[in-house]
Design a protein that fits this description.
Helix content: 55-70%
Radius of gyration: 23 Å
CATH class: Mainly Alpha
Largest sheet: 2 strands, antiparallel
Shape: globular
Structural class: mainly alpha
Order of helices and strands: HHHEEEEHHHHHHHHHHHH
CATH architecture: Orthogonal Bundle
Oligomer: single chain
Number of helices: 15
Number of strands: 4
């Protein structure tokens, strides 16, 4: 190559380089790639993992209805998030309570918008998947008896009135964040929120026909086990992705997530083996999810030893809440959304205040590391979340009933099953049951 050509090329490179660097210096390609993958993982958790997990636990005559309601919840959340959910949760703070309407219909967000080190589009999409799975978790408390139309109305109202404000409090710069509450990936925002909402909805709807008097067997424990495996897989994106970066905290969140899930499964299994004399696959699958729920708020703040304790507590609390406690109180939480997500979410939030380790995340400390105030902050966040969710969900339930002409399906539909009477489909041929 001639010298003059080399000089011209060198000048062109020097001219172009500053513009290239300026356009990309805030975006980290590694962080962006990981959050895109994490978003896909969390998305899979709802219409694949949760649909199979809940569908398998529901009765055979309502399996497809459960899957359909899970699908619809995610679809509605995806649209609502674009229209007004994102701005209510992550728009400019208003009094620590709610986000402003600056980004209504995604106004002002373009391909050039950046949140931290990733494009705002992918940050918003990641958060959208959390909204989708949270409302879908509520479904577990009331399968077999809620009208499909009522579920659609409830989903829209609940995400707007309940989920978005709490997400803003914790992750959008609201009052809980200012107070110093720790919720790495959704102990309060997702699990306590969904669990308490499910309990309220179940209490208002009342028990299923024949509850406590006739057996209500799961349609397919195999489907539930597969759903639990997919949830476990997706949860790595759920927790490790919540760091929004590729670093040591994300790696820590990944390993403690797996450890807690494993410990939760083993604890539930041995508890069931001891008290019921049979270690069931359903129990193991439930223990996996309990361990995942418990570690969610703590994943970026605690080390491996604490994850063992959190998983153990989750398995134990989950097992007793869905056996002895539910049986004694007598409420009909169909698939134990409150027992697993509500109870284990509360345990995880408080355990974060106990075990937060300053060597894991920027000097954040819990009780056993000399900061008892953190446990108090966590307790306040738990009480506030449960109280607001309970009251606001009750209001949403009655508003839903008014708008949809009632909540509960007809007795004949409940007895015959919604797969056939409403959807005109069957998950199984009768001869296969």
């Amino acid at each position: 190559m001639k010298p003059e050509i080399r000089i011209v090329l060198l000048i062109l490179m020097m001219c172009l380089f500053p513009f290239t660097a300026f356009a990309n210096d805030a975006i980290d390609s590694g962080d962006t790639s990981w959050i895109i993958v994490s978003t896909a993982l969390v998305m899979m958790m709802t219409p694949a993992g949760l649909a199979l997990f809940y569908g398998g636990m529901s009765r055979y005559k309502n399996l497809l209805n459960t899957v359909a309601m899970t699908f619809v919840a995610y679809c509605l959340a995806s649209i609502l998030w674009i229209l007004w959910g994102y701005t209510l949760a992550f728009g400019p703070d208003h009094g620590g309570v709610i986000g402003g309407l600056d980004h209504l219909f995604f106004k002002g967000i373009t391909v050039h918008s950046i949140s931290g080190t990733i494009p705002t589009y992918i940050f918003a999409a990641f958060q959208m998947t959390f909204a989708g799975i949270t409302v879908a978790l509520v479904l577990g408390s009331i399968v077999d008896r809620l009208k499909f139309s009522a579920w659609i109305v409830f989903t829209i109202l609940w995400l707007t009135i309940v989920y978005c404000p709490i997400a803003h409090w914790v992750w959008g710069g609201g009052w809980m964040a200012s107070m110093g509450a720790l919720d790495f990936a959704g102990g309060a925002v997702v699990h306590i929120n969904a669990g308490v909402a499910g309990l309220v909805l179940a209490l208002v709807l009342g028990k299923r026909i024949g509850y406590g008097k006739e057996p209500m067997f799961p349609s397919s424990v195999a489907l539930t086990a597969l759903g639990a495996a997919l949830l476990w897989f997706g949860w790595f994106g759920f927790n490790a992705g919540s760091q929004l970066a590729v670093d040591g905290v994300a790696a820590n969140a990944f390993i403690v997530t797996n450890t807690s899930a494993s410990m939760g499964a083993l604890t539930w299994m041995f508890a069931e083996w001891f008290f019921s004399k049979k270690p069931t696959v359903l129990g193991i699958a439930s223990g996996i999810v309990a361990g995942l729920v418990g570690i969610t708020p703590a994943a970026g703040f605690v080390g491996i030893p604490a994850s063992l304790a959190i998983g153990f507590g989750s398995g134990l609390f989950g097992f007793f809440s869905v056996t002895m406690i539910k049986r004694r109180i007598g409420y009909d939480d169909s698939l134990d959304a409150f027992g697993v997500h509500g109870i284990c979410g509360i345990w995880g939030a408080l355990a974060t205040g106990l075990f937060a380790n300053p060597s894991v995340n920027d000097g954040v400390s819990g009780l056993i590391y000399g900061n008892p105030g953190q446990l108090w902050i966590q307790l306040i966040s738990v009480i506030a979340t449960a109280a607001y969710t309970g009251v606001a969900t009750l209001a949403v339930v009655y508003l839903t009933s008014f708008l949809s002409g009632g909540l509960r399906i007809e007795s004949s539909e409940e007895i015959d099953g919604l797969d056939n009477t409403f959807h005109g489909e069957r998950a199984f041929e009768i001869g296969d049951i």
